[in-house]
């Protein structure tokens, strides 16, 4: 049986997702002061992306996400790439993650299509990620609904097409979504690809609402009828808010995942993080998040493979199935 995240969510103590990609690339010497953010590295230093994926896989994650959060063909075209190169770069994000998954499986003496093998999710950021101005944390995009739909339709179709070259279970990570309307649009586009599954993860305001202000409990109920959505979550939120956000999403409609950031504030103009919290999230936080209903945990910006390894160690100490 090919690896499947829905199966892992149902049968593991909890699923471990990977951690921050962009900030980890910066730690390894990449300059991300670019409107494509981590996706800019796909053209300049793809081997570093593969190495970061492999670091998370070696830490013991169940799922790695591609370096495509801010990627799109229009975005690559705007950066000066020719049309064929723009599509190739988008597809490359998938290949790099699966190459790392294959290497990790070889190191473990495991087949990549084994049920227990790690899975790859194609990261697809909200439209705000493409704008690269921080509006994924605000919503309210200055774009017509038809234009927004076509933008996402092209990305989803290209992502699913490339993933089918590697797996019969294409998985999308629809991330940092600020509104229920954009989330519903994603489910409508998913229906055009019946073999694909996805999780939808919201950017949030406070501890109970999406960034645009829709109550998360309403979001969970609205999206609960979409069979292709295998989990709902919150990402790039401050660790201190994660427990309440998990509780708000844990209505029983879908498994809940959360991957908070490492604290601090992001400046979308300077493309830099500043500040931080008094301490990094640790075992007491993990225990609280699971108690509130989390079935999958990981990290977003400013979290590292070392931090993810501590999450894996916590699961193992609980006697959880890896």
Write a brief caption for the model.
This protein has one domain (about 5-315): Homocysteine-binding-like domain (TIM Barrel), CATH 3.20.20.330.
Walk me through this protein's architecture.
The chain has 322 residues and is of the alpha/beta class. It has a single domain, classed as TIM Barrel (Alpha-Beta Barrel). Helix content is 43%, strand content 16%. The protein is built from 13 helices and twelve strands. The strands form three sheets. The protein has an eight-stranded parallel beta sheet with strand order 1-12-9-8-5-4-3-2. The mean pLDDT is 93.
List the helices and strands and how they pair.
Elements: H1 5-11, E1 15-16, H2 22-27, H3 41-44, H4 46-59, E2 63-65, H5 73-78, H6 83-108, E3 119-125, H7 127-131, H8 145-163, E4 171-177, H9 180-190, E5 197-202, E6 204-205, E7 209-210, H10 216-223, E8 229-235, H11 239-249, E9 256-259, E10 265-267, E11 272-274, H12 283-292, E12 294-297, H13 305-317
Parallel strand pairs: 1-12, 2-3, 3-4, 4-5, 5-8, 8-9, 9-12
Antiparallel strand pairs: 6-7, 10-11
